[in-house]
């Protein structure tokens, strides 16, 4: 059971990095702080601690997925980027007379 207005913390360690979220329950709403984002979620059938843990785990997975995609795009664009002095300069067309 949860106690209202009592601030609690959830910690998940992933690949040696510790991620922490703090939360409290107020008037049937879980108020959780993940990094700098504050989330409000109604208390459901699941314990608030498990709810915040699931929110934190989802945030960690999303960050890992975005990082992986960023790395893939960075390496793909580096392979196809023009060699030499970089991108060609765009020259505006002169109006026909």
TrEMBL record:
<feature type="region of interest" description="Disordered">
    <location>
        <begin position="68"/>
        <end position="97"/>
    </location>
</feature>
<protein>
    <submittedName>
        <fullName>Uncharacterized protein</fullName>
    </submittedName>
</protein>
């Amino acid at each position: 059971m949860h106690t209202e207005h009592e601030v609690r913390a959830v910690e998940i360690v992933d690949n040696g990095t510790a991620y922490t979220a703090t939360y409290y329950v107020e008037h049937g709403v879980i108020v959780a702080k993940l990094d700098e984002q504050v989330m409000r979620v109604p208390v459901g059938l699941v314990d608030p601690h498990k709810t915040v843990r699931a929110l934190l785990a989802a945030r960690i997975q999303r960050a890992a997925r975005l990082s992986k995609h960023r790395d893939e795009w960075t390496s793909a664009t580096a392979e196809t980027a023009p060699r030499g002095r970089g991108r060609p300069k765009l020259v505006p067309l002169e109006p026909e007379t």
